Amino acid sequence: MSGGSERLTVNGQPVPLAEVPDDERLLDTLRWRLGLRGTKEGCRAGACGSCTVLVDGASRLSCLTLTHELAGGSVTTIEGAGGDPIARQVQEAFQEAGALQCGYCTPGFVLAIAGALRELGPASSTPELLGGLGGNLCRCTGYAAIVRAAEQARAGLR
Amino acid sequence: MSAARRPDADLKVRGAAQFGTDLAAPGMLWGALVLAPVALGRIRSLDLSAARALPGAVAIGPDDLPRLLGSARGDPERPLFAAPEVVYRAQPIAAVAAPTLAEARAAAVAVRCAIDEAPAVTDLEAVFPEWPAGGAETSPQVAAHVLARHGDVGVALSQAETVVRETYRTAGVHQVALEPHACLAEVDGDRWSVRTSTQSPFGVREDVASLLGLPEASVRVDGTWVGGGFGGKGASLLEPYALLLARAAGAPVRLALTYREEFLLGRSTLPLVARLETGVTDGRIVGRRVRLLLDVGTSLPGRDFATGYSIGFLLGPYRTDTFEVEGYAVRTNKPPFGPHRAPIAPQCAFVVESHLEEVARAVGADPEEFRAAHLWREGDTTPLGQTVGPFGLADALRAAREVAKAWRREAGGPGRGVGIGLGFWSTSTGAGGEARLRVTPTELVVEQGEREIGSGSVLVGLAAVLARRTGVPSERVRIDYRDTDRAPFDSGVYGSRTVGALGRAVDEAAVAALAELGRRLAADTPVRLGVDGGELVAVAGAAHRSVRGLLTAPELAAGGLVTAGRHTGPERSIDAGRVVAGSFYPYQDFTAVAHVAEVAVDTATGAVRTIRYAAFHDVGTVLTPGAARAQVEGGVAMGLGTALTEEAVWSADGRLVNPGLVDYRIPTITEVPPVEVTFLEGHAGAGPFGAKGLGEPPIIPVPAAIAAAVRAACGAHLTELPLSPERVARAVKSAPPSEPDDAARSR
């Protein structure tokens, strides 16, 4: 254990890290220590994007992140997405565009798109936007409706 | 509200849907399986003592089954643990559970097992270097043999003007549902309960009961939201182990696969080899001989459905004067074969379509004209002797050719090509089942075991059937998911059957409810339902009354009027006189698909990029436009994976070389072009209001369409899937120098 006073903010709530082992992944801290299982576990190897969360507004794979790396940082999971104006816009666009089927990739995709929109801004082109989403896999939708949702969410930011 | 908005969307965008991997219970242990490190061998010793010595850990192996199951005896043909023979790599040899996942993994590592390894057989063609000739008796490696014929194909081929002979090979493909298998088991006395992510709760119940030797009534299965199925979650996989661990531990046990284990242990579709001979005289197909070797891994003899069903797709939807079709299901040291969205039909369509293009070229015919001239029409007899029902393939092909013509005119530049692929399918009926409908004063409730697995077939599809039948808006339909103790039996969400088969039972229950309400209303015209002031109302002509007013006091107290509907197995048949050996199956209805693809081929690297795509689907009747379009978009993407990148690679000693999403590549968001989707209605299927199933058809013609487009682009004729860059580049090098292409065809 390192840094007894270290803490993380998750969805606006402080989380002390004193009891979190040094080698614990953020994915496991969120899902099993904090019970925030809206963050999905897929490959645990950085290849599917299901576990994407926002860290200080930028998208990040929680399976490849050690929780202690983020000491002092602020994490937004899908449970807290409603409190992030861009992520909330993406959630609404996903519903409107029918951009989900089984829903397993949805939390990761919503936050990955929110991160990309924050980074690239409302003037970004669709190829620019999609270029950052190649690490988020979806097996159900063929991505078409997800692209429509991303474009709708981008339009909503203007 | 947009047509695309789904009733589960709010839950899912908030991450609030509970999947199998999210299951937890107070005091639960984490389970892990110990997997065989070799593909074939004999276990000399299994020592669980070090695992059991770890704090809080339990470990079980084959010797513990009598203690855990009492008098019950499982299925001797399907032992849960390899004992003493290991027959595939990753076969479970023991199972452990401990208070944390890390401790469970440590316990799994602590299991000591000594195995004498033997040379495994993993290559289908190594089993039979020569084509097998002895039917089911050829060798113990044969799990099934099917043979059917009509007319004398030998004579027909020997007398034909032109005969084309080809061999095709396709790779194993994995479902890649993003949620790995996961379940949570609890055992209380003689009650064995499991919550699990499954396409078929009743299938799991039957399987668990059979594998553990328990009466079905003592097994209770409850579903969760399913993070993708695609056939991979249709039967039990982890549930028996989780239940045994829970029994041994006296505590709930959560068991989930890692994604690597998902690849190693999941039941996926395995390689096949197809040999085709086609004879043509005067532009007419006079004889076809089609032979299939299908790798079924360690599937048990007699438990293979795929060979006899799917082999029909190797004949394709084409007329022939004579035919012979023969298939061998071949056992290898791999996990048992499992269905993958339209099991082997996309591979078969690739084979048939590519072969008939080759045949057409050999006789100097236009490949699309040639196929069009031989298509089944409604009323034709299939090679297996079934009468073709309403079938929109000719319409779909006509529409596809219009699009292809336009794209060919526009298609610019070297390396670009347009191709068409055709396919057909049938709604599966499964083992039949029942539906239970509850009419309450404010809503219609369907009580059932299967969860929505993503396609929308349950939540959107069944609601649409009820809305259309009764008149209530679909927002007033609710699915009440129940465990297998409290739900009526149905065989599951697979085989494109939810709307087409279960939907019929739901529809029948609705018709019964309307009839009963009509009787109570003393109506002499049919009753429709509507909503007025938040309440359901029944209307018949001038008669008009709230449903609340029509229900009896006991019904109101019990939550509504309950009606039931049933659906049964296939109602069609084939001509048994044409079957020589094994089982063949009839089609419930005839679903037609035609796809058009435009690709760009980099002839130096062999890389194929899909530029645009159009899909024409005969679905009988479109009940849910948004969900239907979404099925096609998703199916095309999955098919692009089968066509271009997805390939499970096995080493000679039975090791899966690429058990991960980095090395087993599925399409990403930048690799799938927009799909123009068109539905052709009017060729009614057997489902409610003439609907046909749509879960599987969208994947079927994709590899065929891509292969045709690649051939048009660069002249490369490929006979293996996937069309990986290496294979395409190699085929480009050996292609005839002339560009055999579009110029000729676009006249």
Q: What sort of overall outline of chain A do the alpha carbons produce when their principal axes are compared?
A: globular
Radius of gyration of chain B: 27 Å
Q: What kind of sheet is the major sheet of chain A?
A: 5 strands, mixed
Secondary-structure element order of chain A, as H and E? EEHEEEHHHH
Residue runs with pLDDT of under 50 for 5 or more positions of chain B:
742-747
The average pLDDT value of chain B, as a whole number, equals: 94
Could you tell me the CATH topology label of the largest domain in chain A.
Ubiquitin-like (UB roll)
* Principal-axes shape call of chain B: globular
Number of helices of chain B: 22
Distance, first to last CA of chain B: 46 Å
Q: Low-confidence stretches of chain A at least 5 residues in length (pLDDT < 50)?
A: none
Distance between the termini of chain A: 45 Å
List the helices and strands and how they pair.
The complex is a heterodimer of chains A (158) and B (747).
Chain A: E1 7-10, E2 13-16, H1 26-33, E3 52-55, E4 58-61, E5 74-76, H2 85-97, H3 106-120, H4 126-131, H5 144-157
Parallel strand pairs in A: 1-5
Antiparallel strand pairs in A: 1-2, 3-4, 3-5
Helix pairs in contact in A: 2-3, 2-5
Chain B: H1 9-13, E1 29-35, E2 41-47, H2 49-52, E3 58-60, H3 65-69, E4 85-86, E5 92-98, H4 101-110, E6 112-117, H5 124-127, E7 142-150, H6 153-159, E8 162-170, E9 182-188, E10 191-196, H7 201-212, E11 219-223, H8 239-249, E12 253-256, H9 259-265, E13 272-281, E14 284-297, H10 306-310, H11 312-315, E15 322-331, H12 345-362, H13 367-374, H14 393-410, E16 416-425, E17 433-439, E18 444-448, H15 457-470, E19 477-481, H16 498-521, E20 528-532, E21 535-540, E22 543-546, H17 547-550, H18 553-558, E23 561-567, E24 579-581, E25 591-601, E26 608-620, H19 625-644, E27 675-681, H20 702-714, H21 725-734, H22 742-745
Helix pairs in contact in B: 12-13, 12-20, 15-16, 19-20
